[in-house]
């Protein structure tokens, strides 16, 4: 037997228990007593590493993935996405039912979390669902150079915020988190796309990644879940792996200590 196999203890992951809704929610709770933003990424990938099918991540999802997508939104203070994801996935505001709203109120959260869009140029369509199918004005975190023109174009449809750091032509991830923290939005959920996840990963600001593995092959030139020039080597600890009858795997990895 090769030494690399002989020296590693492998475990067969198989169904050992069926978990109810409350237990599943426990798997995705944010840490208690947060004093800073905790950034959770939620992404999906095919088994051959594609982040999209037919250009959209939603085309990879199944019933379980959509259920966890909603559960994670219910737990978050704010959902962070990039402008390209808003356009491609045709984003609207978060829609929650009475039970979820009541649970959020009991936890001291707003009934509905806002969508925060990270966009260097602020080029978002005035008529997009994001601005008209929502109960909460979205936050547009853009560059200093684009902030004024974005405010003029969107008017009262959104709160436009300068999230630049040293470079007035770009959005700084750390500055964006500081601005969210100042609003009490500490439980951050980012749904991508790959460029936004790459921004947080490259700046070493991603605290955890919830990754769904879809049992499909997509081939082609689909992007991976992270893109961008920033490179890190951040150890992550597996928190859990869930499975469903459709063959999906739902993993959660948390930044190592």
TrEMBL record:
Outline the extent of the Bacterial bifunctional deaminase-reductase C-terminal domain: 38-249
Which keywords are on file for this protein?
NADP, Oxidoreductase
**Which chain positions lie within coiled-coil regions?**
none
User: Which protein is depicted?
Assistant: Pyrimidine reductase family protein
Q: Which Pfam families match?
A: RibD_C
Q: Look up the record and name the pathway of this protein.
A: Cofactor biosynthesis; riboflavin biosynthesis
Molecular functions (GO terms) = 5-amino-6-(5-phosphoribosylamino)uracil reductase activity
For this entry, list what GO says about its biological process: riboflavin biosynthetic process
Q: Does the keyword NADP apply?
A: yes
Q: Which InterPro entries match?
A: DHFR-like_dom_sf, RibDG_C, Riboflavin_Biosynth_HTPR
């Amino acid at each position: 037997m090769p030494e690399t196999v002989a020296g590693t203890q492998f475990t067969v992951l198989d169904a050992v228990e069926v978990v109810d809704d409350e237990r599943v929610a426990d798997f995705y709770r944010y840490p208690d007593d947060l004093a800073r933003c905790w950034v959770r990424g939620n992404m999906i990938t095919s088994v051959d590493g594609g982040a999209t099918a037919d250009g959209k991540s939603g085309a990879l999802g199944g019933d379980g993935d959509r259920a966890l997508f909603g559960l994670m939104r219910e737990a978050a203070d704010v959902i962070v996405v990039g402008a390209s994801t808003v356009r491609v996935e045709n984003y609207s505001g978060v829609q929650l039912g009475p039970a979820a709203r009541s649970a959020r109120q009991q936890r001291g959260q707003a009934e509905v979390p806002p969508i925060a869009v990270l966009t260097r140029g602020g080029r978002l369509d005035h008529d997009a669902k994001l601005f008209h199918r929502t109960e909460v004005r979205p936050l547009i975190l853009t560059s200093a150079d684009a902030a004024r023109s974005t405010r003029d174009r969107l008017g009262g449809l959104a709160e436009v915020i300068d999230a630049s750091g040293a470079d007035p032509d770009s959005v700084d991830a750390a500055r964006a988190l500081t601005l969210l923290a100042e609003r009490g939005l500490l439980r951050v959920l980012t749904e991508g796309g790959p460029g936004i996840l790459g921004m947080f990963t490259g700046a070493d600001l991603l605290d955890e990644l919830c990754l769904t593995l879809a049992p499909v092959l997509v081939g082609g030139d689909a992007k991976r879940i992270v893109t961008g020039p920033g490179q890190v080597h951040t150890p992550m600890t597996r928190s859990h792996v869930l499975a469903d009858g459709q063959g999906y795997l739902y993993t959660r990895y948390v930044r190592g200590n």
